[in-house]
TrEMBL record, chain A:
This is Outer membrane lipoprotein-sorting protein. Keywords: Membrane, Transmembrane, Transmembrane helix. The chain crosses the membrane at residues 21-41. InterPro entries: Sporulation_related.
TrEMBL record, chain B:
It holds the Pfam family ABC2_membrane_2. It comes from the Bacteria. The lineage of its organism: Bacteria, Bacillati, Actinomycetota, Actinomycetes, Micrococcales. Residues 1-20 are annotated as: Disordered. It comes from Cellulomonas marina. GO terms for cellular component: plasma membrane. This is ABC-2 type transport system permease protein.
Length: 450, 301
């Protein structure tokens, strides 16, 4: 309510005008301030956790494995891959993880039930694991896939579950615990280090039949990891609103594309909250980042951890065959047949032989099922027009359908003797003679090997 | 007219039509409510606004009929968003219709009403008569804001109600399948769809404030409407540029499609609260700008 003009002097009116325009200025400042105060994913403020060593921290982490966790995770990939534009339009789809930023919701009871939902704008891709069953569901295609173990696997799973409930899980066979470094690993290490690790392993579990404790396991992992990398404690951070320790793993080897791996671990629950992988190609931002933006340690509700496919949905049943016991007795990781490893540690290159990638991607059944690939328009002219405006790649192929073949063509570039996928962290070379070389090394290294 | 003009002493009246700084009438109790009632009657009784509401209600009707007629043909299941789901559950027609109207049609209609709120009165020369009503300018602006908000709510409600009725009649309603693939009972599903409509309605608070501000700047309503429509369009364009992700969280349209939270197995209330907080921020900034402009402006028509 303003007074009549006659009742106020010129200066008071000017003052009143100024005062009134000051209100929006203050409003902008307040709103701007509120925006600026939004909690960041990570900050270095207000951390006062007691100092720990890397070994102590790893020990705590390995003990904390069965913590129920739920929260929102933001995943960002800056791999330098060619962008796949259709991913944005087609809704939540795992191919979105190749580049850009994605939001996921994660729930786990810490044992054997979990749900991960990849959120898209008005779409969702869910992966639910409920004991021995697993489901994936895509809201975009409306397809549910049910993964089950085969009979033998199911029986074994059930047996393990009952034993876990009764607390009679078999103790680790002491013969399977390595008491010395496998020769192929030992041969590549400096003699002094190998001898030290050997000594530690021999002293390892000690009493025959005793279970190695998480502490022992953590120390062993650290010792073996230290052969190729340097572990250091970074500055403490606040991640997802929790005070966290930071471990920086730096490869000792500079032939690899990985510059360092940074892991932030909750200082009170010892759940890893954020992992960053930095590439040597980009010092300003991590090539891969996966971290909670908010996290809660309450047990997730029953509704979240169970899944039953919606009625009327086509359910594809996939039976996962029971794999042979991985041969961990000799301490090496099981490698697929026909695979050879060149190099060691971070810069190791895996070479697979006899893989016909072209047939694999060309035979992709989704290319035939996708209704949009057979889109027909009533009039012929319209059909021509649509074909004309469809994005095509340099080989004249229609780039609109995101089947495996198109994806393969988009992501790889033709090079002499094959096709090459090169990203900030990993390079893949598919040669025309059916070999696939994969490694965290620059593309030129792969080409030299091939 | 700039606010600086206000400081200039009133020039001698050039004629009966030109009376700078018309004195505001003293406030009288009850006048505010009477003014509000008459404003709502005006907004909802206006032929143009009624035509907009009818046009918006046609969207779910046409959408439902098209999906129904093509459901057994080769064209089934094609189209954006939830259109494929509609055949299975009429409740989805509400979500599909709002999804289709949200990017452009709804902002257009709401921009027309809010951009017209003050500028329309100025153009027809009725604004100065409104100032004679024993209600302060601040309250007059509040009445205009409420009128525009009620119209925005009516637009969303028109789509939602017509879609619910059409969907139920053409496809029937059954337990709702969420984006997460889980199925919730019908009562829960209906509540979730109502939540979608409510969130979409509340998402237009910021746009109404922007429209109201532009409306106080000009006496040409079309200019205010056009300027208001441009804001969500530009905002959507900026939101699609990954290079600008630093400013994305404050864009007017950034959280509009978060209504999808209601269709997830666990509703992300913090996400919805973030979207509403953003609207509140836009409403505070542009509401206060509109207020500063309207209470200091020299109103001559």
């Amino acid at each position: 309510m303003s007074p009549t003009p006659s009742s106020r002097s010129l200066s008071s009116r000017a003052r009143s005008t100024r005062a009134r325009w000051a209100v929006p200025v203050v409003a902008v400042a307040v709103v701007g301030g509120a925006v600026g105060l939004r909690p960041l994913v990570a900050s270095a403020e207000g951390t006062d956790l007691p100092d720990v060593t890397v070994a102590e921290l790893l020990e705590q982490v390995s003990q904390a494995e069965s913590t129920p966790v739920s929260g929102t995770v933001v995943y960002t990939a800056r791999l330098g891959l060619p962008s796949v534009p259709v991913a944005e339009m087609s809704g939540a789809d795992p191919t979105a993880l190749l580049g850009g930023s994605s939001t996921l919701r994660v729930w786990t009871d810490g044992v054997d039930r979990s749900r991960i939902a990849l959120l898209g704008a008005v779409s969702e891709y869910s992966v639910v694991r409920d004991g021995a069953d697993a489901w994936t569901y895509s809201s975009t295609s409306g397809e549910a896939v049910h993964y089950t173990l085969d009979e033998a696997g199911r029986a074994r799973y059930e047996q393990m579950r009952v034993m876990a409930e009764e607390g009679t899980l078999p103790t680790l066979d002491p013969a399977a615990v390595p008491t010395a470094l496998p020769d192929d690993v030992a041969g590549r290490l400096p003699a002094e280090l190998a001898a030290r690790i050997d000594a530690e392993l021999a002293a390892g579990p000690g009493v025959t039949g005793e279970l190695p404790t998480p502490q022992e396991a953590a120390r062993a992992a650290l010792r073996i990891g230290e052969a190729y990398s340097t572990f250091t404690m970074g500055e403490q951070k606040t991640v997802a609103g929790r005070q966290a320790y930071e471990v920086v793993v730096t490869p000792k080897d500079d032939a690899t594309l990985v510059d360092r791996v940074v892991v932030d671990v909750d200082g009170s629950t010892f759940v890893p909250l954020r992992v960053q992988v930095w590439s040597t190609q980009d010092a300003t931002a991590p090539a891969l980042e996966l971290g909670f933006t908010d996290v809660s340690y309450a047990t997730p509700g029953e509704a979240v951890l169970t899944f039953s496919p919606p009625s009327g949905t086509q359910v594809r049943e996939v039976v996962v065959p029971t794999q042979e016991e991985p041969s961990t007795a000799d301490g090496t990781l099981p490698t697929p047949r026909d695979a050879t490893v060149t190099g060691e540690g971070w810069s190791g290159v895996v070479e697979l032989q006899g893989v016909d990638v072209a047939a694999l991607v060309a035979g992709d059944p989704t290319a035939l099922l996708d209704p949009s690939s057979q889109l027909t328009i009533g009039s012929e002219t319209a059909q021509d027009l649509i074909q004309q405006f469809r994005p095509t790649d340099e080989e004249g192929q229609v780039g609109l359908e995101l089947d495996a073949a198109t994806l393969y063509d988009t992501l790889t570039t033709p090079v002499e003797g094959g096709r090459l996928l090169s990203s900030a962290l990993v390079s893949v070379l598919v040669t025309d003679d059916g070999r696939v070389l994969v490694g965290a090394v620059p593309a030129d290294t792969l080409r030299a090997l091939a | 007219m700039s606010p600086a003009d206000v400081a200039v002493p009133p020039a001698p009246p050039a004629g009966p039509a030109h009376r700078p700084l018309l004195p505001d009438a003293p406030a009288i109790r009850g006048a505010f409510l009477r003014l509000l009632r008459s404003e709502l009657r005006l907004v909802l009784g206006r032929r143009r606004n009624q035509a907009l509401l009818v046009g918006l209600s046609l969207v779910p009707l046409i959408l439902g009929l098209v999906v129904r007629l093509t459901q057994d043909s080769a064209l089934q299941g094609q189209g954006p968003g939830f259109i494929g789901e509609v055949t299975g559950n009429g409740l989805f027609l509400v979500v599909a219709a709002l999804f289709v109207c949200l990017p452009f049609l709804l902002p257009l209609c709401i921009a027309i009403a809010s951009g017209d709120a003050v500028a329309g009165e100025a153009q027809t020369g009725t604004l100065r008569y409104l100032l004679v009503v024993p209600v302060s300018r601040s309250r007059l602006l509040l009445v205009k804001a409420v009128g525009a908000l009620v119209f925005a709510a009516s637009c969303v409600a028109a789509i939602a109600v017509v879609a619910a009725v059409t969907g139920a009649a053409l496809f029937g309603v059954r337990p709702l399948t969420l984006l997460s693939g889980d199925t919730v009972p019908l009562s829960d599903g209906a509540l979730r769809v109502a939540g979608v409509a409510l969130y979409v309605g509340l998402s237009f608070i910021g746009l109404v404030a922007v429209g109201l501000f532009f409306s106080t700047l000009t006496e040409v309503p079309v200019a205010a409407m056009a300027a208001t429509v441009v804001v969500p369009v530009v905002s959507t364009v900026l939101d699609s540029l990954p290079q600008l992700d630093a400013i994305h969280p404050v864009l007017l349209t950034h959280h509009w499609f978060d209504f999808a939270e209601f269709l997830r197995v666990q509703v992300g209330w913090d996400v919805l609260a973030g979207g509403l907080a953003l609207q509140a921020g836009w409403a505070v900034v542009f509401g206060s700008l509109a207020w500063a402009r309207f209470t200091t402006a020299d109103i001559t028509s």
